[in-house]
Design goal:
Helix content: 25-40%
Mean pLDDT: 82
Largest sheet: 6 strands, mixed
CATH class of the largest domain: Alpha Beta
CATH topology of the largest domain: Rossmann fold
Number of domains: 3
Number of strands: 12
Strand content: 15-25%
CATH superfamily of the largest domain: Cell division protein FtsQ/DivIB
Shape: elongated
Distance between the termini: 100 Å
Strand order of the largest sheet: 7-8-9-10-11-12
Order of helices and strands: HHEHHEEEHEEHEHEEEHHEE
Structural class: alpha/beta
Radius of gyration: 32 Å
């Protein structure tokens, strides 16, 4: 037998009220006009909030400014130009029609933004609170002729960020990072760098560079009075090997004054694997 197809549809508001009336009798019949009136009033209020100028996002006063009723907290590195691009489409629109979920996603796609929270504030304000990414190292990406064009910052999640000169002196250099790596791979390298520095303790604060080009063979750059020394620490016992180097440093400086790279992996001996050229003398 062929099945009959019936289009599914919900009852209209009026039909719903009449259905209640049949179920509960006269009291609901008395309330039906009130329910319909409330629905009409709600629709009018919704329309009023969507169209009245009181609730509209005002136009930005200049190209380098945000709309006056869009207030942003926490934007240190995120530029007004980037923020303006997100909210420009909302100028003249009621704050109640601004899709906050979409704007949050757009903000969190910006380079520096880690997390964004948005709130509507009566009658016509949108508050934005940003949590920006925190750089933990300086990286120089391989390739290209200009070193400055390859310089970046990196955060703990492996996001590459634009270089800021003010940050260069306060962060270690992480070598072994490339743009072609997946972000998760870069994040793992950052985590390894932080693990190395944490294990080295106080000595780790003086280290200017951690080389993880070969993650199984950690190298660090340790500044001294004469020159920066590259120390090969290997894959484990970093603190023990660093302590051995520091304990024997005076003897190393006396016997190997031109050494620029030392291999600390042998528990009984320290080898100079690279020496300074004569033209690089002290």
């Amino acid at each position: 037998m062929a099945k009959k197809m019936v289009r599914a549809s919900g009852p209209s508001p009026a039909a719903a009220v009449l259905g209640l009336a049949r179920t509960y009798g006269v009291p609901v019949l008395v309330s039906a006009p009130l329910a319909l009136g409330a629905m009409y009033a709600f629709h009018r209020a919704e329309r009023f909030a969507a169209t009245h100028p009181l609730f509209q996002v005002s136009p930005a006063p200049a190209a380098n400014r945000l709309p006056p009723n869009v207030q942003v907290e926490g934007a240190v590195h995120t530029t007004v130009k980037e923020l303006r691009a997100v909210f420009a489409k909302d100028e003249g629109r009621s704050v109640f029609e601004v899709p906050l979920g979409e704007r949050r996603q757009e903000l969190e796609r910006l380079q520096w933004v880690k997390q964004a929270s948005l709130y509507r504030v009566w009658p016509n304000r949108i508050e934005v609170r940003l949590v920006e990414r925190t750089p933990v190292a300086f990286v120089e990406l391989p390739g290209g002729a200009n070193a400055m064009n390859r310089a970046r910052l990196i955060d703990e999640e492996g996001h590459l960020l634009p270089l800021e000169d003010s940050r260069r002196g306060s962060l270690p250099v992480l070598t072994g990072v490339s743009e072609g790596q997946r972000r998760e791979v870069r994040a793992a390298l950052v985590s390894k760098m932080r693990e190395v520095l944490a294990e080295l303790g106080e000595a780790g604060r003086r280290i200017s560079e951690v080389d993880l080009s070969d993650a199984g063979n950690v190298k660090i750059v340790y500044p001294t009075e004469r020159r920066a020394l590259t120390l090969i620490l290997g894959k484990e016992d970093w603190r023990l090997r660093m302590d051995t180097f520091l304990y024997n440093f005076d003897e190393i400086r006396e016997k190997m004054p031109n050494a620029v790279e030392l291999d600390l992996r042998d528990p009984n001996r320290i080898f100079a694997t690279r020496m300074a050229k004569e033209s690089d003398g002290d």
